[in-house]
Amino acid sequence: MLSSKSSTFIQSIRNFKDLRKSVVVSRSFVHATQALQVPPTIIPSENADPAMKTYKYWNREEYARKGRYDYLIKVSPESIVKEAKILNLSDPDDEANEPLFDRLPFGASILETGTKLTDFDDILNNQQPNVVFVSPSCPMARKQLPLVLARFPTIEWVHVRSAGIDFVVSDELSQLPVTVTNAKGQFSSSLAEYAMMACSYFAKDLPRLLRQKRSKNWEKYDVEELRGKTLGIVGYGDIGRACAKLAHNYGMKIIALRRNPKLSAQDPYCSVVYGTDKKSLNQLMSESDYIVCSAPSTVETRGMVNADAFKAVKENAVFINLGRGPVIDEEALVEALKNGRLKGAALDVFSEEPLPSTNELWDLENVLISPHNMDQTATFMHEATEFFVFENLPRFICGKDLLNPVNPSLGY
Amino acid sequence: MSNTQYWNRETSTIKQYSTPVTQQANIICISDPNDKANQKLYEGNLEGAKILAIGSQMSDFDIDLLRASNANVIFASHPNSREPLKMLLQEIPSIQWIHCRSAGIDSIASEELASSSVLMTNAKGAFSSTLAEYTMMAIAYFAKDLPRLLKQKDDRNWEKYCIEEIRGKTLGVVGYGDIGRAAAKLAKAYGMTVKALRRNPQHSQDDPICDEVYSNDKTSLHRIMSESDYILCAAPLTPESKGMFDEEAFASAKKNCVFINVGRGPIVEESALIGALKNGHLKGAALDVVAIEPLPKDSELWDLPNVLISPHNMDMTETFTQEATEFFIEENLPRFVRNELLLNPVDKVAGY
């Protein structure tokens, strides 16, 4: 049912009916058509296992019903329940946001783009924005977002373009009655590929191979297998699970750690799931040959992998961090690397980024450093915006539940 | 595709033997007596079997004694087994079975061997998973531009750049045996498209792991080269496969293709490979095997920045040769002494 009052909107509906005849059929259309033959699923249950294929969370590779609401709007505009009037809290030159400007679904419009409250001064009171789209390209997002929300109390929903929401959460945000969603599940497979590469980098002693090449030295040496080894995953979300899927195929044993271990009771990959208490963390560290840290940076996780945890590691363990730098105590990590407790580390994230050139990590031979780009494909940020444009925005317009809800007070 | 006649370290189940021994195995080892991996074999204690001799040169073997002792089995693990093997086959007609400790038999193959009637078995399936791991590492090495990462680290340069996904790319496996299939299995788990090329494509028609199978002819080879982002050569060295990757093959490669060789060096025309690497047609190569091993110091491959070289050790775990010997002791020897069908038969004429 149309509830909008603006005449331009109604006019555009009329135009749309003509437009519909010439709509381009894309692949997602075809998939969506097929998907629509199945009746829609109902309200998300609190007990839904995020490890299972559920409609509540998005996974780029596995989500079965892509684009279904985008398609729905195109074929039956009557399914539109409300308009989306969006404030884009991002850098106006952010190219990754292109899909916001040329492929918005019907019933949505960008009112203004800006990086601070004052950029939105021209928004008239009667325009009533109800959605905020925020990107990491907005430098002071943490401060600006609550200001924008306070100024425009009609805003119901904030979508964060990235998976990490640590750059935008605050106590103020936690207290506001808005729905917040993010890009969970968008970057997982690339990071899983990186995790396995990092494991093999140490197992096959790639540094030695490269040294030997430089000195034209043909010297055989024993390599290690990943098969049969144990991978411990700290923070078993979508990224952790994608790593588990690959590691499982390599024949590794997988143990995981998460706030709600019960949610992974049916997980086909892990043999053990621990909770986030200190004892469990140390236990996981002592059992793993390879540890992947994919936890978000929250009040609870900051500094969680500390000196005690590093002291508990198994001999010759390898530590991989692809979540957030602040989750580990970087000094304790450096110490463990220098005194040989850890065989090596592969780090895509750091407490300070860019990593200052004075940081000791640059000098340690047994560390693989990447500039927080192991999920950065040529299209990944565009795809993250497309997720908003083709998945969540149409859901909002049709009055359906949004994917990827996050809890600002929990931080993920 | 389960084939009970071939052994795979990960999937084959261990068989228990309860039936009695029906024939004695009298074993000649063409091996290094100091080879620790064969310790279990040399110690003796083998049910229904006896070690008659251990050596690697013709002079190590007392032919008359061996003939009188009814030697019927040869265990070959020495790299220079070709000549002693020829001689033993010629001089001792009682030899029924030769077991080659490695998977590749090219180092012991000869015309005499091919024309003899002895049974031959090998270590197919023993090294596959480790090589599959190496294959995925080699793919990631180029996809995530590991060389660039390492250079940036040397320069303390924090410079973000775009990486490639492995998901969605195509892996072409040339030589779809146990090793090829293990790599394909991992590639599939990563979300790659897998295409295979083998002499008998009909054997892989129903294989759920590969999306397309080609037969072994030039057109098909050029086609798989043109369709794959990554090419894995996991073929054995036979008269047919020798030099199969020539200039024409590399010229048909897809732009930015990465070539990985875990089979045998001579399957590739090395000068053609070097040419394709230098003129940028190939993005890079990862070679665990080369034409001459050890790779001579004057080979250009050492100097090319887009080549990952390993000293034919990417399947060399601490225990792998030991496990290969154990396969002989625990799987095929018990079968032989009970007159049962042996695992991993080798087609001596085909060469693999």
Description:
The complex is a heterodimer of chains A (412) and B (352). With 412 residues, chain A is an alpha/beta fold. Chain A is built from 13 helices and 13 strands. In chain A, the strands form two sheets. In chain A, strands 8-7-6-9-10-11-12 form a seven-stranded parallel β-sheet, with helices on both faces. In chain A, strands 2-1-3-4-5-13 form a six-stranded mixed β-sheet, with helices on one face. In chain A, α7 (188-203) packs across α9 (238-249). Chain A is elongated. Mean pLDDT of chain A is 86; it is low at 1-6 and 18-54. Chain B has 352 residues and is α/β, with parallel strands linked by helices. Chain B has a seven-stranded parallel β-sheet with strand order 8-7-6-9-10-11-12, with helices on both faces. Chain B has a five-stranded parallel β-sheet with strand order 2-1-3-4-5, with helices on one face. In chain B, α7 links the parallel β6 (170-174) and β7 (193-198).
Which features would summarize this protein structure in a list?
heterodimer; A: 412 residues; alpha/beta; 7-stranded parallel beta sheet; 6-stranded mixed beta sheet; 13 strands; elongated; B: 352 residues; 5-stranded parallel beta sheet; 11 helices; 12 strands; 30% helix
Give the SSE order of chain A as H and E letters.
HHHEHEEHEHEHHEHEEHEHEHEEHE
Number of strands of chain A: 13
Q: Whole-Å distance between the termini of chain B?
A: 19 Å
Specify the structural class of chain A: alpha/beta
**Assembly state of the chains shown:** heterodimer
Mean pLDDT of chain B: 93
Q: How much helicity do the residues of chain A have?
A: 25-40%
Q: What is the count of β-strands of chain B?
A: 12
Overall average residue pLDDT of chain A: 86
Radius of gyration of chain A: 23 Å
Low-confidence stretches of chain A: 1-6, 18-54
